[in-house]
Predict the 3D structure of the following.
Amino acid sequence: MRITALAGGVGGARFIRGLRAHLDRVSPESEITVIANTGDDISLFGLRVCPDVDTLLYTLGGGIDEEQGWGRADESTRVQGELEAYGALPQWFTLGDLDLGTHIVRSQWLAQGQTASEVTARLAARWGLPEQRIRLLPMTDTPVETHVVLDEGETQRAVHFQEWWVRLRAEVPASRFVVAGLDRAAAAPGVLDALRDADVIVLPPSNPVVSIGIILGVPGVRDALRGSTAPVVGVSPLISGRPVRGHADACLAAIGVDSTSAAVAGLYADFLDGWLVDPADASVRVRGVETAVHGGPLLMTDVDATAAIAADLLALAERVRR
Ligand code: GDP
Ligand code: CA
């Protein structure tokens, strides 16, 4: 079976890890293609940082800081301490020493003329993704960046997504998101093929606006989903109207969408076939979408709990296969 997933960082990575664990039990030959959001990418100190790709690499490769959900386990921040001593800015974005190794090698390979896809494939090889039959693709090789237009009354100011998310903790209301470069971007090699050739397309519980929503904006992606003959099924990132972690509610508010599981499914209604929700959201109904209720809390507390969510999602995909 070929499964294609769209993914952001923590929610996407944890889900894919559970999906792989489930498939290893029932269908080890299955292949997973992950199309990663690159709208969060940022250049810092001359280095290209790709937070969602890195979270996917570290989580799937066994190097993640489990508690935090992002960054490397057993990390230190000695380099950042030096940067601080020099008064180098910005200091609100954590760059661990081990993590910097990734950004340095990525930046070097990009400077040598390799594409983001080529670089990601080399990074993925180090983390053992090919051996797990996981192919990690950036959504595009074109540098794109999500910017947030802040709602500050009279004045309008845009900041990089990371500044809004990390430094401002999404507490300053956003009036909209603008993805610089996205309209001129092309889907990375393999992305549209992976959507066309998939047996099942899955949406992990990634942020619907700034993770999945950005990938859907890559020219051709949304059309590929609408035209898909394979079932498209997703896991709700909200439980009883609240994001399990992060600020998805602030992102939804910015685009004028209710913070409910039903409203999130509504964002995907033009291509979504099945939606998996928490028992607390059992009453959710979305026109044209088959809803299934997970047998327990829709929480990716550990790999086994996540594998059970993935199992339910694939069962739903079989029910809605058209
Ligand atoms: P990010 O790029 O690191 O912010 O990660 P993603 O966009 O991939 O995922 C973030 C979303 O995952 C948030 O909206 C969370 O609500 C959702 N999420 C995180 N953990 C869980 C979980 O255990 N269960 C569910 N249902 N959603 C989760
Ligand atoms: Ca992200």
Notes: Residues 303-320 form the longest helix (18 residues). The mean pLDDT is 97. The pocket of calcium ion (ligand 2) is lined by residues 8-9, 37, 40, 51-52, 211 (CB under 6 Å).
